[in-house]
Structure of RING-type E3 ubiquitin transferase:
Amino acid sequence: QQERDAAVSESQDLRLKNKQRISMPGEDLNTEFSSYELEQATRGFDQELKIGEGGFGSVYKGTLRNTTVAIKLLHPHSMQGQSEFDQEIAVLSRVRHPNLVTLIGSCREAFGLVYEFLPKGSLEDRLACLNNTPPLTWQVRTRIIYEMCSALSFLHSNKPHPIVHGDLKPANILLDANFVSKLGDFGICRLLIQTNTGAAAAATTRLYRTTTPKGTFAYMDPEFLTTGELTPRSDVYSLGIIILRLLTGKPPQKIAEVVEDAIESGGLHSILDPSAGSWPFVQANQLAHLGLRCAEMSRRRRPDLATDVWKVVEPLMKAASLTAGRPSFVARPDDSPPPSYFVCPIFQEEMNDPHIAADGFTYEAEAIKGWLDSGHDTSPMTNLTLEHRELIPNRALRSAILEWQQQRQRHQPQEEDDDCT
């Protein structure tokens, strides 16, 4: 019993330390488990505990040393299974990041990998609303884009060698109980050795070459498919397709063409996923353009993740955070919607404290201040540089909004009385 308690304590201490650090280069954080422990954790690999299955093998939910875990069993007799087993351990046992799946340990005897359990499943399942789960809001989707940018930036800047994931797709993005996203499945990722230096080299140098590219076709860098050359901007292409999927909810095949056509015809709003709620058009438009830039066929034309992409995504994340948890305006069947000029272009909600910015547009004070405080010097509506940061209260509009709200409130009791008679 003392030995068991000591093992549990050691495992808990290890997990705590893993959460507190981002990366420990060269340090192996892998814990070795026996095949007996994995069998006990899954009640003999009970089919009722199986939560995933594919060409790689099977995934089970289990309880290991008093902790709920996910146990992936790879096909032991497959060369691909052995390679992916070693690769997953080589990467995840040496890096830690809040948006990477945590590898708790492994079992070479059973070709098993033990991960933290993420109860909300994959992003692919959530986009499909599998098992009647509620759709992800636009705020959560924006945060997922931000978190994947953070995870990829971390991997691409790994020392001494960058790490390219190589199979970025919604099925490999898992969600915890709070819908925080974590990138998993590093079985085909690559440690890259650069032969040149400098920013230009990152986009043009052959960092890794293979004659048999692996991954999911719709999300794969076209240049990787044709040349076998893998670079950090291969992941940027995959991220672009994911951004467009989160915006529209549409399948990945030819999604860039669909979005580009919608933008050119002025119909972007018509292809936004309505299940995500009322996407603020400013944010949606910026994400659509960013997704298309990331998904350029030519690697050289894709934006740099650490600079160009981050400059767009970080402010959008802050703006989305301002509305997270706030009740969005939803008109009841017996309510008339507010006039469009009562609605903040950023929050997409009826304004309470309207202010005029240098671009001549009126915004909710909290929204435009958040936009400016996050480093923007451009208009959220026109993308042109603002001449100044001064905000002027729009008192006339505020009076009109208050009058409209009072009229609506006066009508509601009468309607309720009518319903009772």
The chain has a mean pLDDT of 81.
